[in-house]
């Protein structure tokens, strides 16, 4: 972590959040794990249901050919399957399988155990401080995640113009 400015500025806050994310990712990711994009795609399918390949690519910020390859790999592993859209049989959707859901659930249990073990290295006072910080930051972080995954607002809409004034 390097101090480049006030942690209250957007830049300083972005750096602090990046540092926290890096700590968690480094501690949770192991060499045999699926890629972050693979896990994120599976998680998105679990939370939001089947989706078109183009929607997944846009949501994950990757090119459609890259998402196509990723979905092929996940399908070969039995973690996703292609299904027909119920309203338009011409449309193919990607859906998570039972094996995919089980894998995500197992990963979550392992990650929780690893984080729990890491948190036990803190003093009781530090854990209390972190708990208070997370209680305050949790709702804000959830809103940031929603904002990050929401479709971009078009300029000129009431919501977009209200936030720019």
From TrEMBL:
The UniProt record lists the HTH marR-type domain at 10-139
Q: Extract the InterPro entries matched here.
A: HTH-type_Bedaq_tolerance (IPR052526), HTH_MarR-typ (IPR000835), WH-like_DNA-bd_sf (IPR036388), WH_DNA-bd_sf (IPR036390)
Q: Which domain of life is it from?
A: Bacteria
- Which PROSITE patterns does this chain map to? HTH_MARR_2
Protein name, as recorded: HTH marR-type domain-containing protein
Q: Which species does this protein come from?
A: Streptomyces lannensis
